[in-house]
Design brief:
Four copies of one chain form a homotetramer. Chain A is of the alpha+beta class. In chain A, 47% of the residues lie in helices and 12% in strands.
């Protein structure tokens, strides 16, 4: 398939959508991002890379990083993880306290904020230097161009009252083992990861490849763990829009409020898009449209 | 692939699970079903049929029928349907009133009871004789051995206080157009449909075939509508266990409290299992295990 | 104290409030009521009656009647009643299904709709002719001018989808014993009771008198049951405005969407007001203001 | 009335209840309190004091202190307070996050934890030295024997994850102005106040006296503010048991998990009881029984 030509068509067709969303404004560094950015990159399992637009520019991947932490935690503790976090869609906004209360401090899934904070607490059990090791993990996925943005991390920490509430609530229920401050620091760093579209596509390739990093051959997850990861991305990866996204796009994936989206077609390829304007559910307007066009044009939906 | 051999392996391996679940007991006719039944059938898109065990015995498909009604409603009214029902996972038990109240009478998806009742109300707008036409629709899917079980339908009506509550609540919010009694009658008939595993597998084949009935070539849904249907089955088809099922089995599907489960591998095949013992989430214990074994053995998971 | 003079002052001071509320419009007969009505009546325990304005005109007392049914049920079954309904404030709108679901079909208190429907179900256990007996009970309270408005009762029945949902839901949870239709018929009749302000004040006098009807000397409730009744009126009698009303007015009482309010000062008097315009919480704008002025002018608040 | 004789009768009658409750155990200092304590004290508006048992021993008044802070905040900012906190019963446990979320960070009333934290934030706006000034306020109520227990305050801080969650959540919604740590420090100190039954009864006397401290004649609250305070105590002062308490006891009051209860009969007297064993709702078993007996024996219920 001529992926480059398809990327060019997509690029053309998403142009009219600029201006229909809003750049995230809850922290200053995200607010200042140029709304007119659009980058897209594909990494196929046979090692080809296709890209267009601002695909080489680093951006704040925000919640997309929850996938890396979940993969790392799964790698470290296996199925034991699921005693402390669920894997069901939440039916509530991503930062809801209500679900936590009704379910006694067990987050519904690892992609709502409460669940991602829980995963960080699990990582802290096993990592000597959490911040360095989380970044090191992404580098193992053959993506070297990955850094923390300390300005973003700091802003997240200063304004993250809701996340602080979530960690404290779970700690009160006995489901957080480390110091609240430690969990928040690692979480805010995770959120502040910056990567390019090409890097992001490459680092997701192992999820399209049954858990093995293409090129290096390193196994990160078992086949079964990889299927679970993809299933969780499909059912929970797009906040309250997961159901609609599952239908429209038909790819397991994860979005972030920085405007990034990464997704995979198992057995085929991984893809990453970045465009900062968000819809009301907090997903990238052009990013989601681009993926929808991609599956339509290629016929590669898992459905 | 030697599907018959795989079915035989599965049959062997699920045997130890008999006795681990409970037959549905909220109505007398379901309560009396022999818990030791197990049937399974596969229909491939190239027209082959494989089966084992009690695959020719008719059983009460219950909520599996929600898929037929949703397909018929989509066929009749297209996207307009989604103004009256959502397509997001619910995060609440299948018969919850709470979600309805917080979302002003709009059911979260067409597979929770409220949503299925809503779909029936939509059908009543367009069908001259709803009960006859719903059955006629399944017959168009090349499954002739399909009937209502009037004893079941009557029992559902007599004991369905919660469903009556749901319809009345939605009517109070202006989201039900027909008489409450009419909606309930059609809904209870839909629930009472009895089919065999072979019939059920066959009637689901169009969902594996892009919306076209194999054999007859009749188009029921557009490609895009079929993808949406499969996505909704994957994210909402198994009550509160949808997330876990999506991972374990990796097939879009739908279960019913009669112990039936039907699922598809897009582009490949449809499969139906029946075994009456249910787990705590109301899904067939052996049915789910059988599908999990099937995707493991065949490697056919969509993830 | 010169109650007549106080009533005249109140009458003067509430005049500017006409036009600030909305007459109930969910059923036709209530919608047609003249918004400019205002009646008030006091019955003291020493047998004096004071009144002003439209105090002799009958109006639809609606939820004020819940007090009569609760008194009758208490009289008939005593403390056993509290196994099937709570006596805590609800913190939710009066017709909420959410509370019922979280508390397994036990209504929080007898003045939310679910609780009042439950009380009717209890009455049906003990009354030969519920509709006649409920009216007969009010007549025992020395108020003969009391009737059902069959047009209102019928309208309530035709539009009462939410109440139908509530009864069905409770029946599904095993907390309703009689036929749904029977419960709703009795409930809708209860709501349709019409009385005058003087009649309403008189019929509430036993609640100011330790449970004994002044004049006849008939004991309806024990002293202890009367205290409980007054406590429930104070904490739950004014929908979601109960807390504010408790403070502003300082009298146990009950309001209805017909614009009526009845209240008592234990040991002293009972009072009834009617004015059809309602505030957003469904309480009579002038009615509540009149009672607030009454306690301010007389210093008779229980606080 | 011979109050001393009544206290002696009460003392006798509550004895069999020892052992029916549980001493609070969420912090070490409370856990170590002798469960067999029982003290009671009455302060009448004509200046008499009656007491019995451990009425001179200081104990941790915990949430009873919320009344002092609310009185002080009302004194300082008047009605403006009610823009930031409601005065309706909550219908949820005292530390629920659910209510806060559905109502956008506005606590339902000042006696649930979220509301009390909010009141502390208001105090911090107006007090030069919050901790000293809160204590000074209680001393103005003619109770000099009042201190913070720094061990308790520290324990509250160390274990108060849920309160930390509440403050952070409200700050995220813009309803907390001061630093989270500052609010928690003042709140934990407030909770750690230790007083005797005699001191507690004396300090509540102004609430029975229309807002004026008996003896000193100092006006703390207006008559109207005092009525509101009493109304809020009646409807919200006993956690999820407020409705039942309102009926059984018929006095506005407030309880704490230290086993203290303080209440008033407007125009007559104030009363305080202490006994550490708590029922499931977190109210003192013997304390509530003692107050119930008191109103039964004296006939002094407000109902």
């Amino acid at each position: 398939m001529d992926y480059q030509a398809i990327l060019e068509e997509i690029f053309e067709e998403v142009q009219p959508l600029f201006g229909q969303g809003q750049v995230a404004d809850y922290i200053e560094p995200l607010k200042q991002v140029d709304p007119n950015k659009f980058g897209i990159a594909i990494e196929t399992l046979d090692g080809q890379c296709y890209q267009l637009g601002d695909s080489q520019e680093r951006f704040s991947i925000q919640s997309v990083s929850k996938v890396f932490n979940l993969a790392l935690a799964t790698n470290l503790v296996g199925d034991a993880l699921w005693q402390r976090v669920g894997m069901e869609p939440s039916g509530n906004p991503f930062n809801s306290l209500v679900q936590l209360e009704y379910e006694n401090g067990i987050p519904r899934n690892p992609f709502i904020n409460a669940g991602a904070l829980l995963v960080v607490d699990v990582l802290l059990d096993h990592l000597a230097d959490a911040n360095a090791d989380m970044l090191g993990f992404v580098r193992q996925l053959r993506c070297s161009d990955v850094y923390y943005d300390e300005v973003v991390a700091e802003s997240e920490k200063t304004t993250g009252y809701n996340n602080t509430a979530l960690v404290n609530y779970m700690k009160g229920r006995g489901n957080i083992r480390h110091e609240v401050g430690q969990v928040l620091d690692a979480y805010c760093h995770q959120c502040s990861i910056t990567m390019t579209c090409t890097g992001l596509a490459r680092s997701f390739a192992f999820l399209a490849n049954g858990g093995v990093v293409p090129g290096s051959g390193q196994r990160i997850l078992t086949t079964s763990q990889t299927k679970r990861m993809n299933a969780i991305m499909l059912t929970c990866g797009f906040y309250d829009e997961s159901g609609e996204f599952a239908y429209k796009v038909g790819m397991p994936g994860k979005s972030g409020v920085g405007g990034g989206v990464a997704a995979v077609i198992p057995g085929k390829l991984s893809i990453a898009v970045w465009s900062p304007e968000l819809n009301e559910q907090g997903n990238s307007v052009l990013g989601i449209k681009a993926l929808e066009l991609f599956t339509t044009k290629t016929g590669l939906s898992i459905f």
